[in-house]
Amino acid sequence: MTALSRQRDGDTELWWQLFRLSSYVSHVLQRKLMRRHGIGLTDFIALDVMRQAESKAMQMRELAQATGIKKATLSRVAERLERRGLAKRWTSEGDRRVTFINLTDTGRKEVDLFAATFADELRTAFRRAAGSPSMAPFLKRIRSEPWP
What CATH number does the domain containing 58 carry? Predict the structure, then answer.
């Protein structure tokens, strides 16, 4: 028996299915967002979290926590978003260690277009994955079981 032919326990197999699904969907979303809007998935995630905050500015630390993006990576994301005029950063007057970020008016308009592409492509990717014999039961299971 080779290492690749061994059976995995249920939780390990579930994790592998989740990993494969996440990798597939992330790849599709990255490619479509880049092709249609010239924006990467990580940049979109940051924009979408800021959009959910509406017009309220966020500390970069809060944005990092909300997105799961490392602070160093988020700094590069913020630079790209500022260059495109989608977001604006500034340092707190009261504490120079604190940096705020929020969407510009252009960013608010653009993120809605990005979000529409994201939602359409996400639906398509899940539909395709649901057609796979190995993914269909997994998707059914994660959609039907409540999350804590």
Answer: 1.10.10.10
